[in-house]
């Protein structure tokens, strides 16, 4: 897949109580993208999302979206937006937190399963099992062994020693999305999948 995305979705939970949590790092990336492109989010309840329309150079108009359905129903908003825009899942890019990536690292993939993430699972189910959409995974680290309950971890906020790495990850994710939009997913993967925040 090399098509430039036309819809960029950041996953998170709405509400003040979830602001700044690890699970909402997708929202943080989208907020930063809107700042970069000089646009702002508006609530669009028919889409169950906050959306902003950005101009990304010769890539043209791109819609940025933050679903307001809570994480485990993210697919409802994504599917509605895809239908409204009349674009295929192949032109969707989802920005999502990933506890299996070390804090500060990002990883871009052109397709794949949910990896146990409720937001990705909801999107895949709503798209009828279609996994052929890009996702930018933003590492939040893991506080417990694989298979253990990490709900408290993902719904918690970054501790002071973690904030610099989290900020680096958000900044890198913004640049990776920008590269996807202005160049291609393939070029962004070549550039950003090789980088480690500790470098």
Describe the structure in your own words.
- With about 200 residues, the protein is an alpha/beta fold.
- It has one domain (about 5-190): Peptidyl-tRNA hydrolase (Rossmann fold).
- It has helices spanning about 25-35, 75-85, 120-125, 150-155, 165-180, 185-190, and strands spanning about 5-10, 40-45, 50-55, 60-65, 90-100, 105-110, 135-140.
- Strand 3 and strand 4 form a beta hairpin.
- Helix 1 crosses helix 5.
- The chain is globular, with a radius of gyration of 15 Å.
- The protein starts with 6 loop residues before the first strand and ends in a 7-residue tail after the last helix.
- The model has no long low-confidence stretch (mean pLDDT about 90).
Summarize this entry quickly.
The protein is of the alpha/beta class and 199 residues long. The protein is 33% helix and 19% strand.
What is the secondary structure topology, with strand pairs?
Layout: E1 7-10, H1 25-37, E2 42-44, E3 49-55, E4 61-67, H2 74-85, E5 92-98, E6 106-109, H3 118-126, E7 134-139, H4 151-154, H5 163-182, H6 185-192
Parallel strand pairs: 1-4, 1-5, 5-7
Antiparallel strand pairs: 2-3, 3-4, 6-7
């Amino acid at each position: 897949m090399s098509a430039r995305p036309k819809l960029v979705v950041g996953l998170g939970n709405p509400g003040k109580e979830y602001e700044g949590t690890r699970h909402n790092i997708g929202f943080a990336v989208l907020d930063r993208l809107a700042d970069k492109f000089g646009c702002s989010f508006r609530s669009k309840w028919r889409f169950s999302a906050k959306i902003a329309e950005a101009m990304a150079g010769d890539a043209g108009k791109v819609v940025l979206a933050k679903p307001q359905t809570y994480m485990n129903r993210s697919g409802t908003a994504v599917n509605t937006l895809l239908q409204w825009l009349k674009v295929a899942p192949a032109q969707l890019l989802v920005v999502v937190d990933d506890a299996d990536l070390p804090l500060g690292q990002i990883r871009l993939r052109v397709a794949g399963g949910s990896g146990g993430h409720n937001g990705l699972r909801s999107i895949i189910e709503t798209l009828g099992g279609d996994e052929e959409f890009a996702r930018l995974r933003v590492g939040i680290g893991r506080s417990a062994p694989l298979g253990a309950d990490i709900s408290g971890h993902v719904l918690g906020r970054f501790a002071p020693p973690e904030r610099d790495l989290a900020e680096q990850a958000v900044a890198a994710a913004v640049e990776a999305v920008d590269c996807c939009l202005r160049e291609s997913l393939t070029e962004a993967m070549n550039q950003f999948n090789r980088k480690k925040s500790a470098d």
